[in-house]
Design goal:
Strand content: 25-35%
Strand order of the largest sheet: 2-3-4-8-7-6-5
Distance between the termini: 39 Å
Structural class: alpha+beta
Shape: globular
Order of helices and strands: HHEEEEHHEHEEEHE
Radius of gyration: 17 Å
Number of strands: 9
Number of domains: 1
Largest sheet: 7 strands, antiparallel
Number of helices: 6
């Protein structure tokens, strides 16, 4: 029970600290090639990204195909991002609505999050929680889940110990995936989250 309560508190603190960033619209002095590419994907997905003032751009490992990544100044926390527009999938779904083989795109967000958690090869099943509506509203999202993974020691995840996979969806619009990596889940991690005044947000309808 204590473990579950700590995990719930961790999820809430994570989401609240990211959500608090939306009032601060700041971009780095130089728009790098990676950030420009990410901006294009954000536009297509009808989303916004706010860069944290104290974080720095980094690179996710190639194996997982993320769009963009940032790292804490101390180097003990990273956040990797991936966004996916669902508009084309919805167009195809409507055209083939009488074909039972075509899956409703809005039902895929859970599979996207679960598949990413599984891809990290955790030592045990991920701890999964539904993101409550109160927090989803801060992101203009409709559905969301978190997956906490205990990571094996491997180069693909830069030898981090924990990964928090956050997946959120805006109906008929897009899916957002953010993965927060850390080596501990105590005060130091929350301190970094408070510094990370940046995140993804779905644009209002």
């Amino acid at each position: 029970m204590i473990k579950k309560l700590k995990y719930i508190g961790f999820c809430v603190a994570l989401l609240l600290s990211l959500a608090s960033a939306f009032a601060q619209v700041k971009q780095p002095a130089t728009l790098t090639r990676d950030l420009k590419s990410f901006d294009k994907r954000l536009t297509k997905a009808n989303m916004s990204f706010i860069f944290p003032t104290e974080f720095k751009e980094t690179k996710a490992t190639d194996i997982y195909n993320f769009d963009y990544a940032i790292a804490a100044p101390e180097g003990d926390c990273e956040i990797w991002f991936k966004v996916q527009s669902q508009k084309e999938a919805w167009t195809n779904y409507i055209k083939a609505k009488n074909d039972n083989r075509v899956i409703n795109p809005d039902s895929l967000y859970n599979e996207i999050g679960a598949a990413q958690a599984k891809a990290f090869k955790g030592e045990a099943d991920a701890l999964v929680r539904v993101i409550p509506p109160m927090l989803l509203t801060r992101y203009n999202a409709d559905l969301g889940k978190t997956f906490l993974v205990n990571l094996p020691d491997m180069a693909a995840t830069k030898h981090y110990k924990y990964a928090m996979v956050v997946v959120m969806q805006k109906t008929k619009t897009s899916v957002a995936l953010a993965v927060c990596f850390a080596n501990e889940l105590g005060p130091g991690f929350f301190k970094n989250l408070n510094k990370a005044s940046s995140c993804l947000k779905f644009n209002p309808s």
